[in-house]
Design brief:
Elements: H1 2-10, H2 17-39, H3 53-79
Helix pairs in contact: 2-3
Length: 81
């Protein structure tokens, strides 16, 4: 996808908004999934923790899932409609 955007820019064309939304929502979704997985590691789940790591990890997973859903909709808009 980054190559498509670079090709459009080099050709002097405008980059369609769905491409940009798809790119950044995929990146943000992947980062949220990584953070969520890190909070579910055994090192963070310890007695005496000030935060609830499972709840915080779940929040990151849900946010990542929403970002991936936005990514899927942007890809459908960019390529199929």
């Amino acid at each position: 996808m980054i190559q498509d955007i670079a090709r459009l820019l080099l050709a002097g064309n405008a980059v369609p908004l769905p491409f940009i939304v798809a790119l950044f929502s995929a990146l943000v979704g992947a980062m949220n999934f990584n953070y969520g997985a890190n909070f579910l590691m055994p090192e963070y789940i310890s007695n005496g923790a000030l935060i609830d790591p499972v709840g915080k990890g779940a929040n990151f997973f849900v946010t990542g899932g929403v970002c991936f859903a936005i990514h899927a909709l942007a890809v459908i808009k960019a390529y199929l409609l």
